[in-house]
Amino acid sequence: MIDNETASVAISVRRSDPSRPVDCIVRVRSGDGGETGRREVLVPPSNRATVQVTTTLKSVRPPVMADIYGCGTDVPGYLRPD
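RE: above sequence
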């Protein structure tokens, strides 16, 4: 945790086809377990099956933990670099 409103989160993503980009939703939670912030993260194509990505999330209450809500190969256009 960076401060009472910000968390830095590192996630590891393993893909069966690393040549395909993946969209992951990362979220932070407060002490009571409630979701207090989320962010979509683009995991670009790679030549490695497992990659690590770090992102920063804002939280509406002091963040206590972070997790990956889910990942998928249906990457929205606004996340694609092209």
